[in-house]
């Protein structure tokens, strides 16, 4: 499949791309290389190939999600910039 300069300029306009005329031939060559590669992919027979849903067949083995306290209440408040007895002090959010 081959593309001409008029098609390249039309695609550039639709994609809102701007490049100078000195680079048009290079862009045209790159576009034709991409289209040739896509044509090669279209020629591959994939009738017996199942669609790839995941890249890996491995299954994640995760631990059970159990709630537990790893930091005590006092330890959590120890590094707070501002605290009020048992609570964090934060700036007022609502008026």
UniProtKB/TrEMBL annotation:
GO terms for molecular function: asparaginyl-tRNA synthase (glutamine-hydrolyzing) activity; ATP binding; glutaminyl-tRNA synthase (glutamine-hydrolyzing) activity; transferase activity. Its EC number is 6.3.5.-. SUPFAM superfamilies: Glu-tRNAGln amidotransferase C subunit. Keywords: ATP-binding, Ligase, Nucleotide-binding, Protein biosynthesis, Transferase. It holds the Pfam family GatC. It comes from Hymenobacter nivis. Belongs to the GatC family. The keyword Cell inner membrane does not apply. PANTHER family: GLUTAMYL-TRNA(GLN) AMIDOTRANSFERASE SUBUNIT C, MITOCHONDRIAL. Heterotrimer of A, B and C subunits. One of its GO terms (biological process) is regulation of translational fidelity. This is Aspartyl/glutamyl-tRNA(Asn/Gln) amidotransferase subunit C. Allows the formation of correctly charged Asn-tRNA(Asn) or Gln-tRNA(Gln) through the transamidation of misacylated Asp-tRNA(Asn) or Glu-tRNA(Gln) in organisms which lack either or both of asparaginyl-tRNA or glutaminyl-tRNA synthetases. The reaction takes place in the presence of glutamine and ATP through an activated phospho-Asp-tRNA(Asn) or phospho-Glu-tRNA(Gln). It catalyses: L-glutamyl-tRNA(Gln) + L-glutamine + ATP + H2O = L-glutaminyl-tRNA(Gln) + L-glutamate + ADP + phosphate + H(+); L-aspartyl-tRNA(Asn) + L-glutamine + ATP + H2O = L-asparaginyl-tRNA(Asn) + L-glutamate + ADP + phosphate + 2 H(+).
